[in-house]
Amino acid sequence: MRRRAVWLILLMVAVVAVGLWVTTPREIDTKAQMESVLTALRQYHDTHGVLPLAIQYDGDGKPAHSWRYHLQPAIDSAPVPWVEPDADSSWEDGAFADWRAWSQPDLCEKDSTTTHMFTPIGPDTALGDTESDKLDDIDVDQILLLYAPAMSGHWMEPLDFSVDDIDLSEDESTKSIFGSPLYVGFADGRVWRLSDNTPLNAVYMFLTRNGGIVADRELLLKPHRID
Predict the structure, then answer these.
(1) Cα(109)–Cα(111) distance, rounded to whole angstroms?
(2) Where are the beta strands (DSSP E) in 38-190?
(3) SS3 of 192, please?
(4) How do residues 62-119 score in pLDDT, each as one tens digit?
């Protein structure tokens, strides 16, 4: 009887241990989506010689198109013909109606046009500065993409988050700003899921060119990696 009880306890411990390491289908899909978009960014770079700007502005200086839309020829999974944006067009124009109605599988929730995938914008960021960057000028540790459940918008909308809006005066975790789970995609194509208690200032270091150069993700972020 005692031996059976011991075996039952060991079996329960094993089940719990295995459960802690199980990766859910949603986590696999999210990581695969991030990797697909990072690949498309590299293909865009190989074609144009630079990364796309996060936001394309119209002639009046208003946000008109998103980097996500400019990646579509590289992703090459669209059911409708590519429409080349120009200086006088906007993603809300009738010419882009079919695109707006489409749920982009690499960027959106299933059967939805909503995305949680964003790029940092602001001074010294890779896609969100005033000039396009070359990958050779970016450290492999720099973060190009984030999957942030607390942020959402239409995948075509020229909307991303500014690093200037992050308040580092408070001792906060990433969950308070980005939600959970948080995935980050680096310039070398790698994707990590980070724990909810990852310090916000640790992630912030890798959102800019200078931070990616001086900081080491193996030291600051790897201890919080959970996938």
Answers:
(1) 6
(2) 55-57, 63-66, 114-115, 117-118, 120-121, 143-147, 153-154, 161-162, 182-186
(3) strand
(4) 999 999 999 999 886 777 888 889 888 999 999 999 999 999 999 999 899 999 999 9
Q: How many CB atoms lie within 10 A of CB 1?
A: 5
> Residue 52: how many CA atoms within 13 Å on its side-chain side?
26
pLDDT at 27: 56
Does this model's pTM top 0.70? My answer is: yes
Rg of the chain's alpha carbons, rounded to an integer?
20
Which DSSP state fits 53?
Answer: P
Q: Quote the CA–CA distance of 167 and 171 in Å, as a whole number.
A: 9
Identify each DSSP E strand in the chain by its residue range. 55-57, 63-66, 114-115, 117-118, 120-121, 143-147, 153-154, 161-162, 182-186, 191-194
Cβ atoms of 36 and 183 closer than 8 Å: no
208 close to 139: Cβ distance less than 8 angstroms: no
Tell me the one-letter amino acid at 195.
S
Residues 39 and 35: their CA atoms lie apart, in Å, by: 6
Nearest one of 108, 128, 106, 104 to 116, comparing CA atoms: 108
Identify which of 189, 187, 183 has the alpha carbon closest to the alpha carbon of residue 31.
Answer: 183
Q: What is the pLDDT of residues 30-55, one digit of tens each?
A: 999 999 999 999 999 999 999 999 99
